[in-house]
Amino acid sequence: MNKTxxxxxxxxxxxxxxxxxxxxxxxRLLAGREDVEIxxxxxxxxxxxxxxxxxxxxxxxxxxGKVNVDVxxxxxxxxxxxxxxxxxxxxxxxxxTNEAEKGSENGRGDKQVRIVxxxxxxxxxxxxxxxxxxxxxGGLAKAVKKMTRDDVIKEVLDSGxxxxxxxxxxxxxxxRFARDAKTGQPNGSNPNGVDKYMxxxxxxxxxxxxxxxxxxxxxxxxxIEGMAIGAYAVGASHGVIYCRAEYPMAIQHLxxxxxxxxxxxxxxxxxxxxxxxxxxxxxxxxxxxFVCGEETALIASIEGQRGMPRPxxxxxxxxxxxxxxxxxNNVETYANVPWILINGAGAFNRYGHGxxxxxxxxxxxxxIKKGGLAEVPMGMPLREVIYDIAGGIENxxxxxxxxxxxxxGGCVPEHLxxxxxxxxxxxxxxxxxxxxxxxxxxxxxxxxxxxxFFLAFVQKESCGKCPFCRVGTKRMLEILEKxxxxxxxxxxxxxxxxxxxxxxxxxxxxxxxxxPNPVQTTLKYFRDEYVAHIVDKKCPxxxxxxxxxxxxDESRCIGCTRCAKACPVHAIxxxxxxxxxxxxxxxxxxxxxxKNCPVSCISxx
Length: 605
Description:
Layout: E1 4-9, H1 12-16, H2 19-29, E2 36-41, E3 53-57, E4 60-64, H3 69-80, E5 90-92, H4 128-133, H5 138-146, H6 149-159, H7 171-180, E6 197-202, H8 211-218, H9 220-234, E7 238-244, H10 248-263, E8 280-286, H11 295-302, E9 326-330, H12 331-343, H13 345-349, E10 352-353, E11 356-357, E12 359-366, E13 372-377, H14 382-389, E14 399-404, E15 410-413, H15 423-428, E16 437-442, H16 447-461, H17 467-484, H18 491-506, H19 510-514, H20 517-536, E17 550-552, H21 562-566, E18 572-573, E19 581-582, H22 592-596, E20 602-604
Parallel strand pairs: 1-2, 6-7, 6-9, 7-8, 12-16
Antiparallel strand pairs: 1-3, 3-4, 4-5, 10-11, 12-13, 14-15, 14-16, 17-20, 18-19
Helix pairs in contact: 2-3, 5-9, 5-12, 6-7, 6-9, 8-9, 8-10, 9-12, 16-17, 16-20, 17-18, 18-20
């Protein structure tokens, strides 16, 4: 008897959207049934449609979005029991495949290529057998049994895989440096006679970024296998996954996956029968310091020291964790490696643009219709990502800019939306690819306020080691705050640019060197908004509280009192069924009155 499989997405996004009650009801409805299997999976990337429920039957896959308990009852009654699709809630009719996602959901699926996300949302991340059934650990087996260490490095080099953490350094070259390192403590079981570390940077800290978390929650074995392949290639015997403690589900799933990998012989001593290959991994929980995303600060934190960067050289490949040769890549980079080993370098680099090969996972957030994860071929224009994959701007508002690379990145304006997604092209705009955060802004976004927000973030996260970063970002933030209060002067723009140059040149690590990027790019593309704040004392987007004023059109006010009830500071006066007024001196510009007005009689000037 062919079983029907019903999946329920229980990654963080699914749970946050109400997936647990749906999962509990699913188990209750199907309790004792032998013809139906329940599978608890991770995230397929359609976070805006969560909770997601899938039905797999007779080789066909169907995915339903925004499923609550009532909708679930219909799916079980009509689809599972009567084989009649519930069309109102259907979002995908063919599900996702190993590579290209072929869905019916307004082109979002057809333009994606899933390599990193090949298993996400399709397997139970707590069950190693489901990973193995989809070629899991096949790449490691091929490496250990059929390839030399140099063969593995050459395959990764030939693929064109570059580090997905932001810098874009060729992964194979990085591995070769660690492979050739001869310093460190002797290790008899290591062919090089040197003890080495393989480290995974899972300290994803950019606001708006959640790619690494989703992969670790949904497919942790892909990262473990990628690290093991890398360890075999460079001759490492120790592995560390540095994951921020704010990711409890990712850490839990990693712990389960690591134990399962040890039990099956994919970690430990003599992996897959190779007496010279001993490798194991442990998880180090980070305390949430953004600076620990930088390699040398991360190493210091692993060693129990304060997370602060150090000068390079020596580079981690020669002197890293405990001064031993260390290779560091991020989650997405490692997750690509097993696929490359199984399918070959040519299969990977047939996707891409210029020197940027393969795919890139983006966390789509901000003023868009379809937020979530997307994996697209390198070279896809930003316009396609935003309008075809992310569905365009929320409420059909006008696009203004997209922030790429988080606090270290920059704003890309509308006239550059045809820029292809690759490292060199994005860098040419003044932004950076970063780890893959993409925050879209509409016409109601104030870019001066956005720059202030990101400066406040990096200023707070600065470790304080470099005076240019510690003091310079504080001075820049003070100037931005002064401008948003309407107290700025035109010479402040020159001060911002001068400080930006000094901070870039004088900072030791990437945090300080890229901290001015949001300010520099917004000044480059939206200088007129800075001038409006300074000269006209106006915020064109009507966001900066000190430069706006809320008022009620008394001729249209129906006296419903909703605005007065919503006001947190009691700044609105007026009796029921009579026009209301806002006390400008008391008003805190929170916007709740405008949001709650049923006749849209409240304006912002």
